[in-house]
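Help needed: design a sequence for this.
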């Protein structure tokens, strides 16, 4: 266990950040799942911008890698554009 005051603080901060990152990651995954379930093109296009923004925020905070974010956005855009 940590003995120094600063190290204890760092452990607290790390735990808090980890919980926050897990929450945002899970929320984004749920939004992606919901977007994939949409069958109407107009609704999907509207939702795509919100989901893409969430993915970009995760990449900016290093929760996910920037290339993974780009791949996710690309696949979602491709799926939305293929809707009738």
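Sure. Designed sequence:
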């Amino acid at each position: 266990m940590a003995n120094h005051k600063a190290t204890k603080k760092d452990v607290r901060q790390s735990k808090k950040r980890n919980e926050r990152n897990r929450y945002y990651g899970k929320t984004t995954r749920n939004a992606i799942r919901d977007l994939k379930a949409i069958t109407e093109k107009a609704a999907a296009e509207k939702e795509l911008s919100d989901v893409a923004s969430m993915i970009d925020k995760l990449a900016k905070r290093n929760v996910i890698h920037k290339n993974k974010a780009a791949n996710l956005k690309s696949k979602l855009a491709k799926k939305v554009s293929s809707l009738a």
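The helical segments are 5-37, 41-60, 66-81.
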